[in-house]
Amino acid sequence: MEISTWLLFIAVALVAIISPGPAILLAISNSLQHGFRKALLSSAGNISGLLLLSTAAIFGLGAILKTSTSLFLLIKITGALYLIYLGIKQWRSKTNLFSGNSETRQKHGSYFFLQGFLVAITNPKAILFFTALFPQFINLQRELVPQFLIMTFTFMSLSFLVLTSYGLLANKTKKWFSTKKRAIWFNRTIGSLFILLGTALLQLRAKPV
Q: pTM, whole model, 2 decimals?
């Protein structure tokens, strides 16, 4: 892959990664509620999901999703319901999670990794994104596997960097949420955004994004 092509890919990928989405909301939420280390775990889970999705896209799952209405609908509804579930759970919470209560401490690190992983793999938009994006930067005159690996791990690295940056920034504002009133406001805001994203996902059609 030529340097100029790679740099263009980075620019396009950053635009997609930086824009607010469920992974960013999850990183912010976990960082504020459970600490920056938990946000790192959910971010690691998310990029692991991205690796699975990019591989699936290369092997044709993206094309299948665009042609199989039933499969696309199943994945779409699963992803939407999971986001809505996270939103309702967050919105209904009335406890000050920023005080580090015992319930928060009991959650194992694998819980946060799995949470990030599920947010990634239940989003059909991500599969369609990889399907639509990757072919634009592939040089068919060269070996495909090295190009795929470069773009995939570049996208994963950028995603992890952006998610952890959001998480770190959120963690710096943690003290501001120390009062119960602000904590409840945060829960309802983030919860509403999760529900909004889940609802928006239901409107997604099987076409390149």
A: 0.68
